[in-house]
Give the backbone structure.
Amino acid sequence: MPMPRTNKASLESSRLLRSFAEILPLLPEEESLRDKLREAALHSQNLLHGGDKNYVRSIHVAAKRLASGPRADKLLRLLKKRESWIKGGSLIVPENIRPRLHLVGDALTEDLWLIGRSFWSMPFNKGYGRRLRFVILDEAHDSLMGLIGLQSPPADLSCRDSRFEYPTGEKLQLVNQTMDAYTVGAIPPYAGLLGGKLCAGLISSDSVRQAYWRTYAKAKTQMEGRRIDQPLVGVTTTSAFGRSSQYNRLKYKDRLLAELIGETKGYGLLHLEHLYGEVESFLKRRDISTRGGFGNGPKVRWQNVTRVLHLLGLPNSVLAHGLKRPVYLFSFVEDLAAGMAGGSFGNALPLKEDEFSEYWLERWAVPRANRCPEWSAIDGKSLLQQRIVSESN
């Protein structure tokens, strides 16, 4: 997550907050919070600098426990209710797999989304702004394969923004013709057949662009009451655990689908999530609102932590956890750069869902099944149960 830009208003806000802190001396528990925040930042940066991947996963899991996702008992009930949709590898014939995208919108797809999402160690994210969620089902085996979750893009993303030459004052409007993928991947046993490449490739499918059109063609922005621009011209996404085999060399024939365009700057709240309760308590003691909602933007947790850093006299560098995530770009049009410069995006780049699914099957899934026959011993239901239980403890 990139650092917010400094402007006169934010400088004035910082000055006032620091003045407020000087007027109200710190309580012992507030001094303790200051030390904890500083130590958490140093600890994270040191471990990540040493390449400790177990630490990376552990802070994601810890943040997921603290997020407001469904409880473990609810997930286990859903898994039991929909267990026929979670297959073991021994029941899957790779050559017969028939993937199909389904937009989440009924009880079955909602339940399957929640079940599948529990396999991710990343914190639960309900998305914000515009949102599209898909489950990918294997219709030959009546089985859940994977997920795609899209939401409104970040307003500022340095590696994306350095790539385009937006006309003055039009950046946000143009960027909002894209979306950001916050959940992409396959669940077991399909993950063992490189199902992640299927899920990632289907982001570029006509089905996704058509679902966006149907959902938002007549919609208006909440803040400005302006019609949402069409069509959807691209998607960005970040890889949580470094360079991803899911996106690496992801092609449809000669067309590169996911282009590596840079990396994030390594800022965020993952390493501070365990202290967020104390952050809220600090602000409430000072009669400072901690609420989000309309008009406050989707990053209220970031805003609250930043306020507390200012009040405690800590630099924004405390927000640097050091985990720099690769950023990938999916282009859906012939000339994304020209469109982002205020010109024509050109024609849409077609990609039929069935054609990419067949390509994935022949290029990745069947060869993988032949090379690694042990994939068929994977029990998807047991692995999901274990993940749900382990991450609730």
